[in-house]
Amino acid sequence: MSNSVWSSKYTPKHIKDITDNDTNINKITCWLNSFKDDNEKLRTSNALFIEGGSGIGKKTTIKLILEKEKFQIKYIYFDKTNSIKNQLDSLDYLSVNSIFNNKKNIAIVIEEIDTIINSTKSSCKLFINYFKKKCKLPFIFIYNINNDINHKSLSKESINIKFNKSSNSNLKKFVTKVFKAENIKLENIDLDKLIDILQYDYRRTLYILENIKFYFKEKVVTEKDLDNIISVFLKKNLSIELNDALNKIYNSKLDINKSLELYNTNCMKLPMLIHENFIKNIKYNLIETPKDKLKKIDNYYNYITDAYIIQSKIFELNNWDLSDYVGILSTTVPNVLLNSSEKKNKYKTINPSPIYSKINYRFYNLKFINSISKKININVNNFQNFSFKVYKLFVLADLKEKNALEYANYLKSKKILFLDIDKTIKISYLYAQYRNIYTSKKRKDIEKIFLTKI
């Protein structure tokens, strides 16, 4: 849902555009001011623990408050290439750098703390140790209450703030505003019926409204149309596009180009949904002998294993040339296996995959690459060329050389921090070859030149 064009279009740009959480916004602002004033007596903890339902604007609100209060935001993510401890170790330098170079205040934001806790069991203890003893920067943890993760030790040491869902009236105003702006025409429809499926989730709301516009275009949306929309979206957050793509894979003979087109609409979720429902479709829908069914299942698993081996290498090397092969193995092959014999379509249920989560460290690498490329004005496809230069000047050369110092100053002028360089080194295609050279000492030496004032 987060890839929706409308999600970006209608995301609030100013804190005054946020509704339903005025009291929380004031509390957070006062807490941040205690850091700007360097007055520890005005706060009971260096950490905020923000919790609330999915899609109600927690991240956007925090981002807008920090921007308004002129805080530089440093995000900490779950990342297999850069441990939580390593990310935290660099915060001391950030704090010192901010003080001595007279830069704006820094806030540490951990957007998906539930994922980090679930993936790194010692993370709560690490975070508590840092914000209580080692680092006096403000920490903001954002927790999705839809996830049942044990966070009590962390929330106990933090100031707890619970974000409210949008009120019915505010969500109606928002929906009406979008309908008017996008010229969506309704025929005597009770908005309360639509509000029920929106679940007070702005991200879901925009995604559903965008699909309504896409499918009905200039046509007037009737009560019957609305009932059809509701029946689709009540299926555990499956979008119209994803639902249609899955049905086509299961029930239509497609050529490679068409199946790849469907794969590219959602290259993460579609293969996972296919996988989750594949065996039951083979078992109940194909009119074949048990032996033939087992042979198809065996073939599928061989192909899907190859697909994920290739996909792992794609993310490891940041080389996307083989992406279509992953699509063929994970989407085209199941389509052929499911539609090469007679069927009875007894099994029609779509079970959502337990595998996919909106948080995946691979996405953070892509987000990071996009961010760095934007800062230094390069195409994302040239990111590995940038990583080569980082290795050449910082990892493999003498850091005292003029070229290294000049390039470091250039990167600092573009708001590139040492943590960015550290991550670039670790996700580079060169890391496997030179990881033994990138020692703790080398890391600290590089860090020092990024702490030096330009």
Q: Specify the structural class.
A: mainly alpha
Q: What is the end-to-end distance?
A: 41 Å
> If you compute it from the alpha carbons, what radius of gyration comes out, rounded to the nearest whole angstrom?
25 Å
State the total count of DSSP E strands: 5
GO biological process, one term: DNA replication
GO molecular function: DNA binding
InterPro entries: DNA_pol3_clamp-load_cplx_C, P-loop_NTPase
Keywords: DNA replication
Can you put this structure into words, describing what you see?
This protein has 454 residues and is mainly α. The chain has four domains: 21-162, Rossmann fold (3-Layer(aba) Sandwich); 168-233, Helicase, Ruva Protein, domain 3 (Orthogonal Bundle), CATH 1.10.8; 240-338, Zinc Finger, Delta Prime, domain 3, CATH 1.20.272; 361-451, no CATH class. It is built from 23 helices and five strands. Strands 2-3-4-1-5 form a five-stranded parallel sheet, with helices on both faces.
Topology summary:
Elements: H1 5-9, H2 22-36, E1 47-52, H3 58-68, E2 71-75, H4 84-89, H5 91-100, E3 105-110, H6 113-119, H7 123-134, E4 139-144, H8 152-156, E5 159-162, H9 168-181, H10 191-198, H11 202-216, H12 223-233, H13 240-251, H14 256-265, H15 269-285, H16 290-317, H17 323-338, H18 361-375, H19 383-395, H20 402-413, H21 418-427, H22 431-434, H23 440-451
Parallel strand pairs: 1-4, 1-5, 2-3, 3-4
Quick take:
This protein is mainly alpha-helical. It has four domains: 142 residues, P-loop containing nucleotide triphosphate hydrolases (Rossmann fold, 3-Layer(aba) Sandwich); 66 residues, Helicase, Ruva Protein, domain 3 (Orthogonal Bundle); 99 residues, Zinc Finger, Delta Prime, domain 3 (Up-down Bundle), CATH 1.20.272; 91 residues, no CATH class. It has 23 helices and five strands.
